[in-house]
Amino acid sequence: MSRIRVPVDDLTDTMEALKDIRERIDNTARLYQVGSPEDVGDSDLATGVDNFDKAWVAGHERVQDNVDTFKETTQGIVDNFTQADQDTSKELDDPA
Predict the structure, then answer these.
(1) 10 Å Cβ neighbour count for 18?
(2) Cα(33)–Cα(53) distance, integer angstroms
(3) Segments in 27-96 forming alpha helices (H)
(4) Confidence class for position 72, pLDDT limits 50, 70, 90
(5) CA distance 62 to 93
(6) DSSP 8-class letter at 33
(7) From CA 75, how far away is CA 93, in angstroms rounded?
């Protein structure tokens, strides 16, 4: 009989790390906090910073979406293997 070992604890740790990554991305400072064009002194520079910041935020959103998808998939793996383990244990404990 083969044994399948699923590192559920490791997967759970991975999900916690993904949650931390997402929170860190949420808390990242945005460049728009630098100031207005008047504060910067150059409207072209302020526009460039704004455009860069928008692209940066869009990239962060893509990373967050990927993190969420990976976390959901990992949770599904944990749930399915945990349920399969419980079902198998029940079947072995309750002979038909």
Answers:
(1) 19
(2) 10
(3) 37-40, 43-93
(4) very high
(5) 46
(6) G
(7) 27
Task: Of 2-11, 55-64, 82-91, give the lowest mean pLDDT range.
Answer: 2-11
Is residue 5 helix, strand or coil? coil
Contact 80, 41 (CB under 8 A): no
CA–CA separation, 93 and 61 (whole Å) = 47
Predicted TM-score of the model (pTM):
0.65
Give the per-residue pLDDT at 80. 92
- How many C-alpha atoms does 22 have within 13 Å on its Cβ side? 16
pLDDT digits (tens, 9 = 90+) for 24-52: 887 776 666 666 777 777 788 888 888 88
For 46, other C-beta atoms within 10 Å of its C-beta total 19
Is the Cα dihedral 42, 47, 52, 54 positive or negative? positive
